[in-house]
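User: Quick sanity check before I run a bigger batch. Here is a single chain. Can you write out its predicted 3D structure?
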Amino acid sequence: MSKKESPATANCGTTKNLNINGTNINNNFDICTNVDKKNLIALNLSNYNLTAPSSEQRAEPEPPLKNFIKIFCPTRNNYGVQMLGGMWHTKNKTLSDIAVQAHLDGKYYISVRAGWYPAYGLIDIDKNYVTNNEDIFKVANKLKFTDGSYLPYTSPGGRTHLLFKALYKGKPPTINLFNEILKQRVQPYELYPQKKHNIRLPFGYLQNMYNIDTKEQYNYNLEQNLYYLNKL
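Assistant: Done. Predicted structure follows.
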């Protein structure tokens, strides 16, 4: 069974409402205290078709690497490189497709600066992914996440990164508006992208989608990861 499609984005008018997967988040909503945690489970993979769509089904086929770079590499200068187990180093040159592919292949990690209009957001839950379900439910409650409206990934440090899609008036918000509305809401967890800090690219070594109930990790290829990301 395929994932339920998100409702249409509402027009936010002149108020500062941020739409996350069809849900308006504004500066005046009250956090619900009685929430059915079953409705906040991030991803039940048994409800998904785990086969990426064929090229014949895509209206406009695009190579996965090119699509990934368009989404996650809005800026390609002054990027960071981290060898596995090493320290971050800044590269003052243009990020190449070869370097991005090396990240995806697990050879090393790449981090980039945020673009002016971030296509996706990431919440860093700095606790072991095996034992942090209560933290996931807490932040899901704050942002009114619904079933399948975000994707849980492991981080190289064994923590959880939640990927989600945010819209303002049907389009990605500016980086300033994104942080203005959401940064305080997700505390004590970290929100990315940030204007002055790099963000590690996803889908690299030890960055696997996982089921928050069973903790099973899914070592998907780039095309499969993009498929689920595009379903948000």
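Helices lie at 64-72, 97-104, 133-142, 175-186, 222-230.

User: Great, the batch can go ahead then.
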